[in-house]
Amino acid sequence: xxxxxxxxxxxxxxxLRQARKEKNPDTVEAARVVYSSGGDMVVMxxxxxxxxxxxxDLERVRREVKGILHLEIAAIPEMEKLALLIHPDSVxxxxxxxxxxxxxxxxxxxxxxxxxEKTIKNLSGAGxxxxxxxxxxxxxxxxxxxxxxxxxxxxxxxxxxxxGKKLQARELEKLQLAGFLVKELKLQLHAGHGLDxxxxxxxxxxxxxxxxxxxxxxxxxxxxxxxxxxxxEMKRLIQ
Length: 239
Ligand code: PXP
Known about the structure:
single chain, 239 residues, alpha/beta, 8-stranded parallel barrel, 11 helices, binds pyridoxine-5'-phosphate
């Protein structure tokens, strides 16, 4: 079976630290544990409200830890500038609104968007792989492809939130069909949001899946078993 990469989102290590605005728990330490426990990349979301990850977290992780860094940002000039400065290996462009508790679905793309296209071009031009967070909808995926995205991250929140086997199977099928299209367009296939130890396996088995990005469930489990165990357990599940 194909090796599915695990991106571990460490935002909520910073959420805990920001509760006291202290130095600990330290995102650099978390990133080191992720890489040494089988995580393939560290994922960080720099939100406009800076509720968890700060610029300093990104700078330090990039400078002090060897490994693949994946950054999630809103497609706005401020974030583009920061991404070009920090130069992660890859970026995923996500929608962001001030009141949301977490990212609410993929980018809403009704046809090509000049601003977004420019952001993709600028980041790509700097050698950063650019992904777009998309709901599993063919029209959105085709638009992201036409705008120059290198990868599509399929939003799995409808699947994760689906209640009962029937609904979950229907949402899984949407992800499988969307994944098929992503591969047909010769793009990298990523998925994430709301994935946990109970629902991850069918998504990991989607044909052509390259990478899963998972945060909340891993950091939550780490509270009880430690980050090393939480990451390696998840890694085992997606193999
Ligand atoms: N992928 C994207 C684009 C996200 O915005 C997030 C949340 O930051 C995740 C994956 C991870 O989601 P979760 O924390 O629910 O695993």
